Amino acid sequence: MFEAPYLLFLGDAPDGLAAKMAQGIYDWRPEAVAGQIRMEGCNADLGIKDLSIKEAAAAGVKTLVIGVVNRGGVIGENWKSILVEALESGMDIASGLHNLLRDEDDLVKAAQENGRTLHDVRIPSVQYPIASGKKRTGKRCLAVGTDCSVGKMYTTLAMDREMKKRGLKSTFRPTGQTGILIEGNGVPLDAVVADFMAGSVEWLTPDNDPDHWDFIEGQGSLFHASYSGVTMALIHGGQPDALILCHEPTREFMRGLPDYTLPSIEDLREIALKLAQIVNPECKAVAISINTQHMDEPAALKYLDEVEKKMGLPTVDPFRQGAARLVEALV
Amino acid sequence: MFEAPYLLFLGDAPDGLAAKMAQGIYDWRPEAVAGQIRMEGCNADLGIKDLSIKEAAAAGVKTLVIGVVNRGGVIGENWKSILVEALESGMDIASGLHNLLRDEDDLVKAAQENGRTLHDVRIPSVQYPIASGKKRTGKRCLAVGTDCSVGKMYTTLAMDREMKKRGLKSTFRPTGQTGILIEGNGVPLDAVVADFMAGSVEWLTPDNDPDHWDFIEGQGSLFHASYSGVTMALIHGGQPDALILCHEPTREFMRGLPDYTLPSIEDLREIALKLAQIVNPECKAVAISINTQHMDEPAALKYLDEVEKKMGLPTVDPFRQGAARLVEALV
């Protein structure tokens, strides 16, 4: 969709949190990042080279990526002169903000005049097909969760990186804007029209080598009343061979739904597997990924051990322990 | 969304099949239909009053409904003079065709000049909310199927009409274009953006009297790889109290998916109920609706009897037998 190397735009971020998109891109794909560009008053710093637009252009930067969110997710008027200069210097711009680059007349004009492209990654840029349900070659692994935001993206990214470290064939397949900004491509699944959801996931994970694994970023949860349809489309479009069950043990209720408590990991395994086996009878739940960020180390390790014994599956927090055991569970 | 009485536009339909949308509207809602309008060469006939635009306007028609499909689902150029005359005579126009009224410049112009509205029912006209998952008052019944196109719309329409015949409180809630054209409102669910699917179903089935039933038109199937996400959103957005299980027993494979055979009605009951109980623990599968159109009467009755015994639920073909026993299963 868009090309590295990236220049990460931190704008006038009031603090590091406002630039967490840039941080995520740099953490997961440092080799794609040529440097950062910051405006006066910016309080975020990735600890990497500061480049002017001129320097970035000279360094061969292909895309300026907006890695900052200000209040309301809008495109700052005070960013414009830098963004226009980037377009004039031969860079494309990528953004995951709610407000779209394509709705800013001055950016559209500068992009047209300079033959550049504005990538709004929240908006599908492809006319996806209706899903065919046909079996594809290659292997696929999907993260499913007891809730939204329990670490599904982190888990699949970590597994993909671990595979590559081992010299194994692997691709991370993003389905949300952060993942898309990291990888430079993907499907913004929550913005796809209902009829084409599963088809967009098929499109994202096409035929591949028999020993190649796609790591598909999960979205929502089968147990989340607002987004379960999106999760369902991932399961049926992705046709996973392997499911990773993701959970956050300290959460008291479903994200954004105070009337709902979380299901058990057993419930998730049972229902996700049953639905996945409709399209791939060989699908297995192979491992469990726990987000223990709200537990101290001894409590976390004790919990992981208990879950592993109860469920009979390798159980790790990839943030604390790395993704090695998750990847080994695939093979 | 749009108002009765309707004038059903049959255009230059080459045969009755091309006008089956008009036939459906008249079959299910004859009281909303003032008459039909046919062009020269039209070979379809609903057997109701032919009205000119002038006569229809004098009879108080509020909406001309395009009830004909020509090849490609486009709006015929030769229809235009009649459609413009309708707009000039104070009628709105409603269409479920793939090609949109709003993309026809001459119709848009005539609508603007006359203060009329063009209703393209395949396209959402509302900014739906994200689903909240909150419990609503009133009762809801959802048709779920082992496959697409097994009679879910027919079943819920027939149950709604039977309820009304008995003086009970009931509303049919359409989620597809045929249902929307019949009812004059609804949600074109397959065209809703992923994040808002469940929210659109909540919006469609709001709080109501404790003894009021919504009959929600089903879409797709949990077992259909292309559309299962849409079905999931209906189950979690609809929060049904009662499920009707729909099945077509002679189908050899899933509609459009030659690699997939149909699940059993038991499989459907098990998984649909488990998913529905996430949002409504009281949900029950109350009855079975079988589409026996491809069986002769003795074979159909024998099959219905067998299923009823095996599943322990009232089992009928509402087309052959009416919806009385389905409605009784609710109470």
Automatic annotation (TrEMBL), chains A, B:
SUPFAM superfamilies named among the record's database cross-references = P-loop containing nucleoside triphosphate hydrolases
Tell me which stretches of the chain form a coiled coil.
none
Q: Which residues form the D-glutamate N-acetyltransferase-like N-terminal domain?
A: 39-124
Source organism superkingdom: Bacteria
Report domain D-glutamate N-acetyltransferase-like C-terminal positions: 130-327
Stated name of the protein: EBNA-1 nuclear protein
Q: Per the UniProt entry, what species is this protein from, by scientific name?
A: Maridesulfovibrio hydrothermalis AM13 = DSM 14728
